[in-house]
Design goal:
Distance between the termini: 76 Å
InterPro entries: BchY (IPR010245), LIPOR_BchN/ChlN (IPR050293), Nase/OxRdtase_comp1 (IPR000510), Protochlorophyllide_Rdtase (IPR016209)
EC number: 1.3.7.15
Pfam family, one: Oxidored_nitro
Largest sheet: 5 strands, mixed
Number of strands: 14
Structural class: alpha/beta
Strand order of the largest sheet: 2-1-3-5-4
Keywords: Bacteriochlorophyll biosynthesis, Chlorophyll biosynthesis, Oxidoreductase, Photosynthesis
Domain Nitrogenase/oxidoreductase component: 69-459
Shape: globular
Length: 516
C-alpha cells in the first residue's frame, strides 16, 4: 500500500490479535446454501445484523420470494445519488450480474469492486483491501459519501464493515451487509441503505447545523414521501397538499445526501411504500409521525387527506376544501377511463396493493394481488380495502402462489413478474410486466386515475392475437421440439406445410392491403 494515509490504518492481522476483528472461518462459497451461509455468518459475528433483518423483514409463509438478488436494491439507491460512490464486496459472478442489471436499468456510474479469493477472505486481507479502497475513494471534492456493500460470502465470513472509519477527509463512510440469506427482496434492500443513511444524517443533525438542501426550503410544513415513485407523483401530491397548508417534502430514498436533512425536517412522513421499516424507525426516533397508504383513487385519496390533516392538526374546513379540490376530478378521470375485465396482479416493487386499489376503482374485476413484500401496519388500510372489495391479498407471495391464482381465476389479463408473464403468454393469456409497464406510471391523484386504462385495455383487447400465436406455435418447446433430441431427428412434413401455408397467407394479406 503506497498511500501514506493507508499505512496508518490498522492491519486486519493486528486487529484480530487485539480482539477487534472476528476470527475468520474457513471461506464459504455461494454454493454452500442459505442455511450454511447463515450459520457461518452467526459464528463470524453477524448474528446481531441478521437478527435485526429478521425482525425488520420477516419471511414467510415460505422461505423467500423468488426475485432478483436483494443487493440490487441497495446498489440502485447508491447509484442514483449524486456525489456518492458505491462499492461491492462479493463474489465476482455476483458483482458482474449486479453491475449488468444496474446498467440495464439506466445507471450511468461506475460500480466499485474489491476482489478477493479464499486466502484474502480467510486471513482478513479482504477487510484491509476494502479499507484501502475506501481511503483512496474518500475525496471530498468528488464525494459526500462512500457506500460499501457486503454480499453473501463476505457477510458469511464476518468481514467487519462496522469498524471502518465513519468519516475520512470529511467524506461519510457507510458499510452495510445485504446478503441474500438475510434480506428477502431487493425492495427491502433499498430500505437497508436508506435507513443507514437516515441514521447517519439524523445523528449529524443532532450534533449541530448541517448543509442546507439544494432545493429551496418550503415556507410550509412538509410531508416526506417514503418510497420510490413516478417522477410526476410528488408534484401531484404537492398540489393535493397545498389546500391543507402543507407541501411535499423530499422523497426517500433521496438523490443527494443533503436531501436527507430536509426529509428528517418534516411535519410527518407518508409511507407510500409501507415496507421501509428501518427508515420508519429513524423517522420515529426523530419524533416524526408516520401515515400509511397513499392518495390513490377516490377512496384512497379521501382517506389519505383526512389522515394527513388530522396528523398535522389541520382544521376541518381546510381538510374538506382539500378533498373538494381534487375528488371530483378524480371521479371524472376514473369514469372517463374505465377498465373492464378480470385481472390478477403480482409484483415485488411494494406498490402492488396501491395499483390494485386503482384497478378496482377503475372498474376492473380484480381477483388477486400478490406482493413479495411483507405485511406491515402501514399497509393494513390498503389490505382491508381490497379484501372488502373481494380481492385476495397475498403478502410474501411466491411464484407458485401467483401462478396458482392465475390458473384459478383464468383472468383476461395477468399483470406480474417475468415468469408470470411468460407462463401467461404460453397459456394465451394477455399479460403485462408489472415493473416496466405498470409501476413506471403515475398512480396518485388525477393523473394516476386514468393512467392505467389505456395500457390495460389494449392488452386485454389483444386476446385474439394471443390465441393465434398459441395455435401457430403449438408444440414448440415440448416433446421433440424442446431442443433436446432423444433420438435421430426426422422431418415433420405437417409442420413444414403448416409454416408454408402461414407464410403464404401473410404474403397474400400484405399484397391485398397494398392494392387497397
Amino acid at each position: 500500500m503506497s498511500d501514506p494515509v493507508i499505512h496508518q490504518a490498522m492491519s486486519a492481522q493486528s486487529g484480530a490479535e487485539a480482539g477487534l476483528l472476528p476470527a475468520q472461518p474457513e471461506a464459504l462459497g455461494c454454493h454452500a446454501g442459505k442455511a450454511e451461509l447463515k450459520k457461518a455468518a452467526d459464528a463470524a459475528g453477524k448474528s446481531e445484523v441478521l437478527a435485526r433483518y429478521a425482525a425488520d423483514y420477516p419471511a414467510g409463509p415460505h422461505d423467500q420470494p423468488q426475485s432478483m438478488c436483494p443487493a440490487f436494491g441497495s446498489l440502485r439507491v447508491g447509484l442514483r445519488m449524486r456525489r456518492t460512490a458505491t462499492v461491492l464486496s462479493g463474489s465476482a459472478c455476483c458483482v458482474y450480474g449486479l453491475t449488468f442489471t444496474s446498467h440495464f436499468y439506466g445507471a450511468r456510474r461506475s460500480v466499485g469492486y474489491v476482489p478477493f479469493n479464499s486466502e484474502t477472505l480467510v486471513t482478513g486481507k479482504l477487510f484491509e483491501d476494502i479499507r484501502e479502497a475506501v481511503f483512496k475513494l474518500a475525496d471530498p471534492a468528488n464525494y459526500d459519501c462512500v457506500v460499501i456493500i457486503n454480499l453473501c460470502v463476505p457477510t458469511a465470513s464476518g468481514v467487519p464493515l462496522q469498524i471502518l472509519p465513519k468519516e475520512i477527509n470529511g467524506v461519510r463512510i457507510i458499510g452495510i451487509d445485504v446478503p441474500g440469506f438475510g434480506v428477502p427482496t431487493h425492495a427491502e434492500a433499498k430500505d437497508v441503505l436508506a435507513g443507514a443513511m437516515l441514521n447517519y444524517a439524523r445523528r449529524e443533525a443532532e450534533q449541530g447545523p448541517v448543509q442546507a438542501p439544494r432545493a429551496p426550503r418550503s415556507d410550509k410544513p412538509t410531508i416526506t414521501l417514503l418510497g420510490e415513485m413516478f417522477p410526476a407523483d410528488p408534484v401531484g401530491i404537492g398540489m393535493m397538499l397545498a389546500p391543507l397548508g402543507l407541501a411535499a417534502g423530499p422523497t426517500v430514498p433521496t438523490r443527494e445526501w443533503r436531501e436527507l436533512y430536509g426529509a428528517l425536517d418534516c411535519a410527518a412522513v407518508a409511507a407510500i411504500h409501507p415496507f421501509y421499516t428501518a427508515s420508519i424507525r429513524e423517522f420515529e426516533a426523530a419524533g416524526r409521525p408516520i401515515i400509511g397508504s397513499a392518495p390513490v383513487g377516490c377512496d384512497g385519496t379521501a382517506d389519505w387527506l383526512e389522515a394527513v390533516g388530522k396528523t398535522c392538526g389541520v382544521g376541518r374546513a381546510q381538510i374538506d376544501a382539500a378533498k373538494n379540490a381534487v375528488l371530483p376530478a378524480i371521479r371524472a378521470a376514473l369514469a372517463a377511463s374505465p377498465i373492464s375485465g378480470r385481472i390478477t396482479l403480482s409484483g415485488y416493487e411494494g406498490s402492488e396493493l396501491l395499483v390494485g386499489r386503482l384497478l378496482v376503482e377503475s372498474g376492473a374485476d380484480l381477483r388477486y394481488v400478490g406482493t413479495a413484500c411483507p405485511r406491515t401496519r402501514w399497509s393494513e388500510a390498503d389490505c382491508a380495502w381490497l379484501e372488502s372489495h373481494g380481492v385476495r391479498v397475498q403478502y410474501r407471495a411466491s411464484l407458485e402462489q401467483d401462478l396458482a391464482a392465475m390458473e384459478e381465476f383464468a383472468p383476461d389479463l395477468a399483470i406480474g413478474t417475468t415468469p408470470v408473464v411468460q407462463k401467461a403468454k404460453a397459456c394465451a393469456i394477455p399479460s403485462l410486466y408489472f415493473t416496466n409497464l405498470i409501476s413506471a406510471r403515475p398512480l396518485f391523484g388525477v393523473s394516476g386515475a386514468g393512467s392505467l386504462a389505456q395500457v390495460v385495455n389494449a392488452a386485454i383487447s389483444g386476446k385474439a392475437r394471443f390465441d393465434e400465436m398459441r395455435d401457430f406455435f403449438e408444440g414448440v418447446g415440448e416433446g421433440d421440439n424442446a431442443g433436446v433430441w432423444q433420438g435421430t431427428p426426422v422431418e415433420r412434413p405437417e409442420f413444414r406445410d403448416k409454416f408454408r401455408k402461414a407464410v403464404a397467407a401473410q404474403a397474400k394479406k400484405r399484397k391485398s392491403e397494398e392494392m387497397v
